[in-house]
Amino acid sequence: MALAHALAREGFAPVIATSAAYADYIRGEGLDFVAVRPDADDLTSRLGMDMGQIARKMAEDDRFLFGELIFPHLRESFEDIDAAAADAIAIVSHSLAFAARIVAEARGLPLVTVLLSPLMLYSAADPPLGSRVPLRRAPGSSVEIAYNRALLWAVAHAVALWAAPLRHLRRELGLRPRYGLDLLLGSESSDAVIGLFSPTLATASRGEAARVFVAGHSFHDRFLGNAALAPELEDFLAAGAAPLVVTLGSFVTRARRDFYRDCMAAAARLGRRAVVLAHDDDAPALAEASPRHVFVAAYAPHSQIFPRAAAILHHGGVGTSGQALRAGRPQVVTPFLGDQFDNAARLARLGVARVVDGKTATQDALFRALAALDDGHAARARHVAGIVEQEDGAAKAATRIAALMADKRQEQAAW
Q1: Which residues contact 306 (CB under 8 A, 6 or more apart)?
Q2: Which CATH number is correct for 2-221+392-414, 2.60.120.10, 3.30.450.20, 3.90.650.10, 3.40.50.2000?
Q3: End-to-end CA distance of the chain
Q4: CA nearest 335: which of 51, 54, 55?
Q5: Where does the Erythromycin biosynthesis protein CIII-like C-terminal domain start and stop, copy by copy (predicted)?
Q6: Which superfamily is assigned to 231-388 in CATH?
Q7: Longest Cα pair distance anywhere in the chain, in angstroms?
């Protein structure tokens, strides 16, 4: 959303192509929208699972995202994006939007690949920190970097073996074969690669910095059209000390009542009040049974509630992590799946967070992590916030894309 608005300010007419579930929100912000299959109903119907079960399966099985959620719908996604791109001058896509990259290549359109988290850099100099792969986590020599590069190459080619549907569709369309990270992430076939995350989270080598432009974090949380806190929440905040704020974002948050109760209990053991942001299905029951020192809500804008916190306990999603960094509050991060483990490790490396594996978290583990947050974490969080609050990744990315398109126009004119 933030990038689309920034591109509009650069004079473009952005169209967001994504799941039908977001149509009203996107159009409500004055942006054009095209639905792309699958949506949540398609997935739950085909798999016989609700979204909470899907989230849990993703946390258990690394292949589930590709094998059950993306690739079975690859052709449908391609057809929808291809139709939407009939009058397009370029495609800007998420690094895992395989169908979008195929459309760009098939139509000969400029392609900008956006990396939303530093994990997707797959950097040999600053490798994935949450991975089970035996990488050198802090390579201090050219030999260790070369080792990481070779191991990442091998892993990428092994993972690419899962991508048979992707190779088949490319072959059917007459596109040349691609391999490894280029097949999976478009690392070599993109006209530009832009990272929409804070440079404080990633250290790119000179060669990687030339390949990837890290624009900074992109902030936009007007998702529900309400940037203010509810009056009841304002009253709670005003009635006592700054609380612990607990959130699991918008995906892994389903069916986590026991987790939220453990967070409430850990806060109580510390003598802390708490604000718990739970899923719509769980918030009423949690609120009814919660003690007076806890406020439960289904939603509050992170940009508004995080600065009012004493500490923030969250899942490590990159959007939530960026908001927590900007708020300048110490964090406990409880990753469940995907890039959350890498984000959590990077936040801990920054000195602003403690980490507890969300899948095995207990009340005692959460209590110990919260109790371990000290003045050093708080001071470091304030320092990093001074950097992150100056970032406008969407604006910088849009400027870079505008420059790319200007270069493309000059090249065409020269012909």
Answers
A1: 245, 312, 323, 324, 326, 327, 329
A2: 3.40.50.2000
A3: 35
A4: 55
A5: 264-382
A6: Glycogen Phosphorylase B; (3.40.50.2000)
A7: 71
Q: Which DSSP helix (H) or strand (E) runs through 34?
A: strand 32-35
Residue 261: predicted pLDDT: 96
Residue 300 token pair? 């509050």
The predicted pLDDT at position 11 comes to 97
**Token duo for residue 123:** 């950097």
170-203 burial, b at 16+ Cβ within 10 Å, e below that, comes to beeeeeeebebbbbbbbbebbbbbbbbbbbbbbb
pLDDT digits (tens, 9 = 90+) for 170-208: 999 999 999 888 888 887 889 999 999 999 998 766 666
Low-confidence ranges of the chain (pLDDT < 70): 204-209, 222-227
Q: Tell me the three state secondary structure of residue 311.
A: strand
Q: What 3-state class would DSSP assign to 267?
A: helix
Residues ≥6 apart with Cβ < 8 Å to 93? 100, 101, 104, 111, 112, 113, 114, 186
Q: What is the pTM of this model?
A: 0.93
Comparing C-alpha atoms, which of 294, 196, 299 is closest to residue 249? Answer: 299
* pLDDT value of position 222: 62
Q: Please give the angle made by the CA atoms of 271, 273 and 277, to the nearest 5 degrees.
A: 140
What is residue 297's three-state secondary structure? strand
The Cα 311–Cα 334 span in angstroms is 14
